[in-house]
Design brief:
529 residues, five-stranded antiparallel β-sheet, 20 strands
Length: 529
């Protein structure tokens, strides 16, 4: 039931640390080698102790798994590989008892070709009302044998597939993922109903997949060129970031605001500029957006500073918090991606957690997990690995199941092995091995997240003050509330004036302090003024 009792507004999402759980790789509760909701539920106390504020669960809906669950056949049902609706309710309820909020993935741009609506559309044929909920079109050419336009799928090849009766349907992703027609009132009504279904179950928010993709330009005009699309392009496209999406999100906001407890929505919106992303976050639209501009920044002081400034500048006019993220289920883990190994990854983490706004942590990054780069082809599972063109299909390396305990695989993941093989040398990276070790990456995260909750100079905000006396290649900034963060982005030690009392260092050995101090390469330190 909807709750209408008043609770004081906290703006909890403005400084929240949100932990992404990729359910099939987090923890296995039934011993079949595949992570599931029972596994998630059993490990919620670990997340509370880690110090995060919310858990975001990647898709667990009923799905043929043509795109790892982003092809949804039923938005109100749990896929049996993950459990039941009762399991989902238990995760949400247990999380609340532990002081954690829950965010679920929502996939509104497309569904599975096994969705009841699409199957009905295929069966009822051209001109049927069921087909109007998708983008069915006649083809070009003498006999309709050419696609209706020149749009390309992000997974490679045309964005159109022809059905036996001769019509074509649009899919910006895999052919098994037909795009909804968001100009149709039934689609809009259905998703408001889906929102309420999950809000009534108690979820605290939604991560909106492909939030920029719902509305297509009128008439579905040609792009006029043939280069393969990339997910994070800066080009303007007739099927992405159309102005019509904003009316949809205004209507969703009214639904979210009907519920007590500050329910939120987070946009996965790939847009040409940070300013375009900010439009999704006006006060009557969504609450947050992923900051992919930051994630895609290399380990370079000038680039990082520009990305930080641009992100904060873009969010300020709409009053939305900036978000920061280093890793997720689609990109190479930052320990590997940034080069420089674990020292650099730890420094990057302290930099990210010192920035004003909200931060996202991808499961396992708190263990310092590297990307698994040597998976043999025969064990790979990434659906795009099996496509001839498009994405590189190498997302399995960041999806290898987590190591919890023990000396050998599956390291406490579950009783039945793991769906992707874990490296034989991960014994030292398990939760068990790192817990209580002050030098471990896990304890660094726990300490940093505890400080972030209590120190007035960390968390929400919209500005940093760059310190002008920092040497080249060193990022140094002050936050209101008396916190200074210094990060040496260079390959050699740097000499700096001591800005205060050291609170936390990304290295266990703090340099000797004497007027000036030497900051080692790939090191970040938090200071209290």
């Amino acid at each position: 039931m909807t709750q209408h009792h008043a609770t004081p507004a906290t703006g909890w999402w403005r400084d929240a640390v949100i932990y992404q759980v990729y359910p099939r790789s987090f923890a296995d509760g039934n011993g079949d080698g595949m992570g599931d909701l029972a596994g998630v539920r059993s490990r919620l106390p670990y997340l509370r102790d880690l110090g995060v504020d919310a858990v975001w669960l990647s898709p667990f809906y009923a799905s043929p798994q043509a795109d790892a669950g982003y092809d949804v056949a039923d938005y109100r049902a749990i896929d049996p590989m993950f459990g039941t609706l009762a399991d989902a309710r238990a995760v949400i309820d247990d999380a609340h008892r532990l002081g954690l909020r829950t965010i679920v993935d929502l996939v509104p741009n497309h569904c599975s070709d096994q969705h009841e609506w699409f199957r009905r559309g295929l069966a009822e044929g051209p001109g049927s009302t069921a087909r109007e909920r998708f983008h069915f079109r006649k083809g070009r050419g003498e006999n309709g044998e050419e696609p209706p336009n020149d749009w390309e799928s992000l997974f490679g090849g045309p964005a159109w597939t022809r059905v036996p009766d001769g019509e074509w349907y649009l899919h910006l992703f895999a052919p098994e993922q037909p795009d909804f027609n968001w100009d149709h009132p039934a689609v809009q009504d259905e998703f408001r109903s889906i929102l309420r279904f999950w809000l009534d179950l108690g979820v605290d928010g939604f991560r909106v997949d492909v939030a920029h993709g719902l509305v297509k330009a009128p008439g579905l005009p040609d792009m006029g060129r043939a280069d393969q699309l990339t997910l994070l392009g800066t080009q303007s496209l007739p099927f992405f970031d159309q102005d019509g999406v904003h009316a949809i999100y205004r209507s969703w906001r009214t639904v979210l605001d009907e519920y007590a407890g500050e329910r939120i929505a987070v946009a996965e919106a790939w847009t040409p500029t940070a300013e375009r992303t900010a439009l999704y976050l006006r006060p009557d639209e969504l609450h947050q957006a992923f900051n992919f501009h930051y994630l895609n920044t290399t380990w370079d002081a000038k680039e990082l500073r520009e990305a930080i400034d641009a992100s904060l500048d873009a969010m300020r006019p709409v009053g939305a918090p900036t978000t920061w993220v280093l890793s997720n289920h689609d990109v190479v883990r930052h320990r590997t991606r940034l080069g420089g190994g674990l020292d650099r990854a730890r420094a990057a983490t302290l930099l990210m957690l010192a920035l004003p706004g909200s931060a996202y942590v991808y499961q396992g990054e708190e263990l310092g997990l590297p990307e698994v780069v040597d998976l043999p082809d025969e064990v790979r599972q990434d659906p795009s690995f099996f496509r001839a063109t498009g994405q590189d299909g190498l997302r399995d390396g960041c999806r290898v199941p987590l190591p919890w305990s023990g000396e050998a695989p599956p390291y406490g993941f579950g009783d039945g092995g793991s769906w992707l093989p874990q490296p034989a040398d991960w014994a030292g990276l398990t939760v068990q091995a790192q817990t209580g070790d002050p030098a471990s990456t896990l304890e660094l995260y726990r300490t940093a997240l505890a400080l972030r909750r209590t120190h007035p100079g960390l968390g929400a905000g919209d500005a940093v003050e760059w310190l002008q006396d920092a040497p080249e290649g060193v990022l140094a900034f002050r936050r209101p509330g008396g916190l200074v963060c210094t990060v040496n982005i260079t390959d050699s030690p740097a000499r700096l004036p001591v800005p205060g009392r050291p609170l936390l260092s990304s290295r266990t050995e703090l340099p000797v302090l004497d007027g000036d101090f030497v900051l080692p390469a790939d090191t970040a330190i938090w200071w209290e003024e």
